Amino acid sequence: LGYRLLHAPQAGSTIDPAPEITADPARIRGTWGVALLTRLPVRSVRTVELGRLVERWDVADRHAIVATLEVGGVAVDLAAVHLSFALPNAAAQLRRLSGYLPAHRPTVVAGDCNLWGPAAVGLVERHRRAVRGRTWPAHRPHSQLDHVLVSPEVAVRAGEVLAPAGSDHLPVRVELAVGDA
């Protein structure tokens, strides 16, 4: 398909056919992570440590992938995230990530933020939602926890929440543009 895969495993995370729910990090099995697939040229990529914010059922080290992509000669920073499902932790993680995003060029933050829209937008300065719609739970969605947040330099051409695709969250699709792209 021509995609380049950028992946950040989440240490201490669980994905297991029979997961053991525990607050003891030493007893957690399996791994999962955050991935970013792109066909655009990648200028640089880094993993941003969002912290180990231990909550009763969420003891994973959370990371974001921040890639600087080239879009029609313009550098665009794209951060892929899967934040904690514990509200105070997710807010702290998004606030921490925003400190790694440059204020002088187009930026996009995308993924499972586990935050409602107003909270997510309020934590990433200058950003707005590219799509609005209920994304969770997939079988009967009532909340938007999955976001694409864009800086003012990014134009939103289209955005929608899609049909279920094998997750407990509904996927979102956006069409974005920068510069003359």
Radius of gyration: 16 Å
The CATH superfamily is known as Endonuclease/exonuclease/phosphatase
CATH class category label: Alpha Beta
Strand order of the largest sheet: 3-4-5-6-8-7
- Tell me what portion of residues adopts beta-strand conformation: 35-45%
Low-pLDDT ranges: 13-25
What's the β-strand tally?
Answer: 10
Report how far the terminal alpha carbons are from each other: 22 Å
Q: What is the CATH architecture annotation?
A: 4-Layer Sandwich
Structural domains: how many: 1
SSE-based structural type: mainly beta
Taken in chain order, the helices and strands follow as: EEEEEHEHEEEE
Shape: globular
Task: Describe the fold and architecture.
- It contains two helices and ten strands.
- It has 181 residues and is mainly beta.
- The chain has a single domain (4-177), classed as Deoxyribonuclease I, Chain A, CATH 3.60.10.
- The strands form three sheets. The protein has a six-stranded mixed beta sheet with strand order 3-4-5-6-8-7. The chain has a two-stranded antiparallel sheet with strand order 1-2. The protein has a two-stranded antiparallel sheet with strand order 9-10.
- Strand 5 (74-82), helix 1 (87-98) and strand 6 (107-112) form a beta-alpha-beta unit.
- The longest helix has 12 residues, at 87-98.
- The chain is globular and about 40 Å long.
- The two termini are 22 Å apart.
- 33% of the residues are buried.
